[in-house]
Amino acid sequence: MNSTGIGAVVGGTYGLAPTLDNMIDLKKAVAIDSADKASAGFLTNSKVEAALAKLKDDQNNYLLSPYGSEVGTSRLCGRKMVISENVPSNLSKGSASGTLSAAIFGNFNDLYIGMWGSLEILVDPYSDFSKGTTAVRALQSIDVAVARTDSFAAIQDIYAT
Q: What pTM does this model have?
């Protein structure tokens, strides 16, 4: 367990190769706690997606169909895999400094996102006046909480370039 209470799948000394076996282990970390529901899925970044997309079976067929889904979403182990650059790709472990990525598997119905207050939209026509542009800034108070920590597991040391 890490400090958030979310289960962790531990990789190698200097990072873990993105393999199908490692992703199955990530899914298993949630499944053994009976939290692998139909709404569960993978979340990772484009570096990990690209590495997984290059994996082939013994018949030289891609494990992830490069044409089987819309950009940024695929299916892995029968679950949706969503890609977001909000998933870190600059993590460190051992001598692998700032080059490791993360992958999360979880039942995202057990993730709560709370928003309160009103959305503030600030318009500033003066800061970039010389460029002829107007700056717009939106501010919203948001918090995220996990309802059931058994519903999530993460690998935080995937080596994918």
A: 0.76
